[in-house]
Amino acid sequence: MISKKLTSKAGITVPKSIRADLGWKPGMAVDMIPLEDGSLKIRPHIDQCRFCGTHESVKRYKDICLCPECAAKMKEAV
Ligand SMILES: [Zn+2]
Predict the structure, then answer these.
(1) 24 shares its domain with 40
(2) Are residues 36 and 68 in the same domain?
(3) What's the gap in Å between 27 CA and the centre of ligand 1?
(4) Cα(37) to centroid of ligand 1, in Å?
(5) Whether residue 64 sits in one domain with residue 53
């Protein structure tokens, strides 16, 4: 475990040794997930349907990620 302080702008740099172990590269997208115990989970970004939250078969259209089921429901509604 490595302890660090947040910067004056509440930023944090993931230490090089941890990045190397995880295979994380500068500029890669990450998801930040606050947990109930006050901790923060950070993982490589995974596209997730904006409407139902699934990760299955998610497609990106412009800045919106959605699954085939929600796309079909949206098509019916429009
Ligand atoms: Zn969906």
Answers:
(1) yes
(2) no
(3) 27
(4) 28
(5) yes
Average pLDDT for 22-33: 94
Same domain, 26 and 39: yes
Q: Please indicate, yes or no, whether residues 53 and 41 belong to a single structural domain of this protein.
A: no
Residue 39 structural domain: 1-45
Q: How far is the CA of 62 from the centre of ligand 1 (A)?
A: 16
User: Cα of 43 to ligand 1 centre, how many Å?
Assistant: 21
From ligand 1's centre to the CA of 57, what distance in Å? 9
Using one digit for the tens of pLDDT, what is the confidence trace for 51-78? 999 999 999 999 899 999 999 999 999 9
Residue that is written with structure tokens 């509604």 in the block: 77
DSSP labels for 3-65?
-----TTS-----HHHHHHHT--TT--EEEEE-TTS-EEEEE-----TTT---TT-EEETTEE
Tally of domains within the chain: 2
